[in-house]
Specification:
It is a single chain. The chain is of the alpha+beta class. The chain has two domains: 2-158, no CATH class; 170-192 and 227-374, Nucleotidyltransferase, domain 5, CATH 3.30.420. It has eleven helices and 17 strands. It has helices at 13-40, 45-60, 64-77, 129-134, 192-211, 214-223, 226-248, 261-265, 274-278, 282-296, 340-354, and strands at 2-9, 94-96, 101-104, 109-113, 120-126, 142-147, 150-158, 170-175, 179-183, 188-190, 252-256, 300-303, 328-330, 337-339, 361-364, 367-370, 377-379. The strands form four sheets. Strands 1, 2, 3, 4, 5, 6, 7 and 17 form an eight-stranded mixed sheet that branches. Strands 10-9-8-11-12 form a five-stranded mixed sheet. A hairpin with a 2-residue loop joins β6 (142-147) and β7 (150-158).
Length: 383
């Protein structure tokens, strides 16, 4: 399988200026290529190369391979549709291949082509131990990214995928808002901390937006992304614990297929609860579980989520009255009681044990893709 290692570059001020000018020059060249493509209605990268290669190389001072990378970026961007002319931000990411980028893992440096007079710049980088091992299997193009004043490289790597265990045992996992995940063993992963952080940042953003001064806008920019990163860290932690438990007990993981759940529930959710529902990152948690499970050789099974919270795990009775309140499950048929999320996780486990799909489906960049085709999941640090 392929994952993407995220490594942080540590350039000197002179090197940072050279990288920034390289991004600006390359994206300016992409804008010019896109203009010609739009005017001539020629969108294939090979046809564009015949039209503009020599002129772009001479006018923008780019190396031959960097011009090829710019042509590829423009050609790929028009594959989605050709209804509008594509434009590119001055500091948008650009791709590097092995002709203009090389790694020295022993010294933790990377040699990159730039528009500086020396052209090649040797820049140190930092990464986690796990990423350093993954970089040994580096393959394909790496993207230079400039975000929040920091340069980083997104490096695709191919790692060996263990053969999934063929055991019949299943660990059911119920995903929720109050409890982000609950497994069929009765272990609960609460979402209370994430909800407190969400409410705190929501109040802070509202207060700063109501002020509207320059200092308030600077503060808004400074706290931008903190809530998202905090929630992402929580989901990484939960996913790692679930996969570790399933791997240690040689069980598959069973999850609900919650695709499009927001569209199905938007008419029934109270207005006061819409912010909490829209902030529910169940899809991110499912993606994290899926790619970590794939790396560990744990199968992931998706089951129909209908009525899992109202179905008795003991007798199979389905009734709305089985849920007298959010945390409690009390079957009106057999009298079985349990925590509602634990009962739902057991129901998911039993459904997966009876109906075994061959693969699970993931939503990757807006398109459904089978699990064995999962690509480009980013690994951060030692997660």
């Amino acid at each position: 399988m392929k994952i993407v290692a995220h490594i942080k570059l540590q350039p000197t001020p002179e090197q940072a200026d050279a990288l920034k000018r390289t991004l600006e020059t390359a994206n300016a060249a992409c804008n010019e290529i896109s203009r010609v493509a739009w005017e001539q209605q020629v969108f294939g990268k090979y046809d564009l190369q015949q039209l503009v290669y020599q002129r772009i190389k001479a006018d923008y001072g780019l190396s031959a391979q960097m011009v090829i990378r710019c042509l590829t970026k423009v050609g790929d961007s028009y594959k989605l549709d050709r209804k509008v002319q594509r434009t590119y931000r001055p500091h948008g990411s650009i791709a590097y291949d092995d002709r203009i980028l090389s790694f020295n893992l022993q010294r933790q440096t990377v040699s990159m082509w730039t528009v500086a007079d020396e052209h090649r710049q040797t820049i140190p980088f930092v990464c986690g131990e796990r990423q350093r091992q993954v970089l040994l299997a580096r393959q394909g193009e790496s993207d230079l990214v400039f975000r929040n004043g920091q340069f980083s490289l997104l490096v695709p790597c191919t790692v060996d995928e263990p053969t999934p265990d063929d055991g019949d045992a299943v660990l059911g996992v119920d995903l929720g808002i109050v409890n982000l995940a609950t497994d069929s063993d009765g272990e609960t992963y609460s979402g209370a901390q994430g909800e407190r952080v969400r409410q705190r940042y929501q109040r802070r953003r509202a207060a700063l937006q109501s002020v509207g001064t320059k200092s308030a806008k600077r503060r808004l920019k400074k706290i931008s992304g903190k809530q998202r990163r905090f929630q992402s860290n929580i989901n990484h932690t939960i996913a790692k614990q679930l996969v570790r438990k399933a791997k240690g007990t040689r069980r598959a993981l069973a999850l609900e297929d919650l695709t499009h759940i927001r569209k199905r529930t938007e008419q029934t959710v109270r207005k006061s609860a819409r912010a909490k529902l829209s902030n529910w990152s169940f899809n991110q948690l499912r993606r994290y579980i899926s790619y970590k499970a794939q790396m560990c050789g744990v199968r992931v099974l998706l089951v129909d989520p209908r009525s899992t919270s109202q179905t008795c795990n003991r007798c199979g009775t389905v009734d709305k009255r089985n849920r007298p309140n959010q945390p409690t499950f009390r079957c009106v048929g057999c009298g079985h009681t349990n925590l509602a999320d634990v009962n739902a996780a057991c129901t998911i486990r039993d459904r997966a044990a009876v109906i075994r799909p061959m693969v699970s489906n993931l939503w990757v960049e807006g398109q459904a893709a089978p699990l064995e085709r999962l690509r480009f999941m980013t690994c951060y640090g030692d997660r």
